[in-house]
Amino acid sequence: GLHGKVALVTGSTSGIGRGIAEGLASRGCNIILNGFGAPNEIKDLEADIIKKYDTKVHHFQGDLSRSNDVQRLIDDAFKIYPGGVDILINNAGLQYVSPVESFPAEKWNLLLSIMLTAPFLLTQRCIPTMKSKGWGRIINISSAHGLVASPYKAAYVSAKHGIMGLTKVVALEMAGSGITCNTVCPGYVETPLFINQAKDKAVEKGISVDDAKKDIVKVHPSGEPVKVEEISETVCFLCSSSANQITGTNITMDGGWTAN
Ligand code: NAD
Fold this sequence. Notes:
Bound molecules: nicotinamide-adenine-dinucleotide
Shape: globular
Distance between the termini: 37 Å
CATH topology of the largest domain: Rossmann fold
CATH class of the largest domain: Alpha Beta
Strand content: 5-15%
Structural class: alpha/beta
Number of domains: 2
Largest sheet: 7 strands, parallel
């Protein structure tokens, strides 16, 4: 089981990362949270996970667009857990939308640094202790946009395609070591962000929130969004011994979007 394993989940103060942190805590993992948020809300989140699952929970600051912060995050983690991180979930991410010919270079750099360079640096730092234990899990949260493109999302689509490649290289280099590396590619996920988007659309179009959700997820042949808990369960499965031979690959959860 996963009891007592140390899991670092980036971008876990909100949305998908938060759900993954809870899922891993429910399996008995000690959790390192990371991400932005109001200090009192982060304290509440820590306390909530500790109360529900009786595991250790720490939140460490770190702006993943800054390589110094990335290194400090790992240094902080190793201070508390000298045995290192057993499960690394590279989840932090953000979107920026603009036509390619006017896409600001600093936004390109920002998205690539958070969604591709930080996962690379964290992977580098986590591997040595994973190797010495003969066990590790690295799971990169990509997106359906790691497989297909949409207009105006040059940086996001490039970063998400890039992480698919990094995942395969790491999987090959780690093969036979007990360390696996995989991606999960969600379509539209029912995060607070998505629900707020649906509420705005409902008001704007004078339709119900449910109909607004349907309108947003019509790109999914299933017509339904992905739930955070579903992603969390998939991540927990990839961390289980049933997934020992699943490496260098991807689980797509997009209601059929990329099959279309
Ligand atoms: P969210 O906005 O709810 O959460 C993002 C998290 O990342 C937050 O905790 C935030 O503080 C953190 N973060 C952002 N910038 C950071 C930085 N510079 N340093 C450290 N932390 C930072 O987003 P979400 O919807 O939960 O998305 C999580 C991941 O899932 C992202 O990689 C996203 O691309 C991917 N994803 C989301 C969807 C979706 O529909 N929501 C679909 C496919 C993939």
